[in-house]
Every structure is written in C-alpha cells, then in structure tokens.
Amino acid sequence: MDEDKKTPPAAPPSMPGDAEYDEVLELLQGEALRQAREIYSAEVVAECMAPQNVGRLEPCDGTAVLTGGCGDTMEITLRVEEGVVTEAAFLTDGCGATVACGSAVTRLARGRKFEEALDLTRRDILALLNGLPPSHLHCAALAAETLVAALTDHLERSGATMTANPEGEDHGTR
Ligand code: FES
Questions:
Q1: pLDDT averaged per 10 residues, the chain (length 174)
Q2: 23, 26, 109, 129: which could form a disulfide with 88 (CB 3.0–4.6 Å)?
Q3: Class assignment of domain 16-174?
C-alpha cells in the first residue's frame, strides 16, 4: 500500500470558544424567557427569576415538607415570635411556577399574624402572581398547603391548639 495515498485523518471538530458558548447560552436563555413570557404573567416570571426567601431556617419554629401530586416537593421553615411569623423560607425541586409560588407564599406569610397566615390560600398566591395557567394551579396549592403544614407544626411544637381555616377555606384545587 502506498503510504502517500492514505486518507489524512479527519480534523477534530473545532471547539467553540468561551465567547461562542456565551452567545449560544444567551440565545437559549432569551428563547426560554420569550417562551416563559408567553405562558406566564410578568409577575410569575419576575418572581421566578429573582425568588425571595430561598433556603432553610435553622433552627426554626415550624417546618413541613410536602410532595404534590406531580411528584415535586416543597419545604417551608418558619420563625414565629409573639404570635407573628417573623421569617419564612422555602426550598423546592419543582418547576419555575413552584419557585414563584414558594417565593410568593413566604413573602405573604412574613410579618403576618399567625392566625392570618393560617388563612392564606392558593388564591392569595394567585392574586399576588396575577394568575397561573390551569396546568400549574397545583403549584400554588402545594405552596399554600406546605405553609399551613409548617404553621400547624409550630402549633404542635408549642402545644397550642388552633383550627386552620375555621371558615373551611380550601388550600387545594378549589
Ligand atoms: Fe409540580 Fe409545579 S409542576 S409543583
């Protein structure tokens, strides 16, 4: 075999530089944001992009971890002083809408009297976020239910008794 007629090895594919990666990333982020704005309200997009109260309060006065029907989980931790929810934080492995709902529900709870916080429902979250698509209403329900469970945990820890939502307000899908 004539060594001179061998096909030269193919050149390795050229790797994009940092600038090209940044450009592609920017395009993808821009496209994702454009799609999100088509589906969600401006409030949901803003809350999701800059969520408040992300994390876990340690120690805390009340906590709960709930898993929604979709399989996503939310954790809320609270601090309560003299009958007021002074701090609230959340963690979730859920969708962007759930991040927005966790941020919204902790913002709603902070600084609120304990009894008033118990009355928060998914409707309050939806009002703050200017709604969610029907396919994501359960994300607001998960956030509201986790908050009430964390408040109830505080009650149990402190030995107090109080009925959540005495009016029978539903935190779920109503
Ligand atoms: Fe599961 Fe949002 S899709 S909580």
A1: 60 67 79 86 94 97 96 97 97 95 98 97 98 95 98 92 48 41
A2: 109
A3: alpha beta
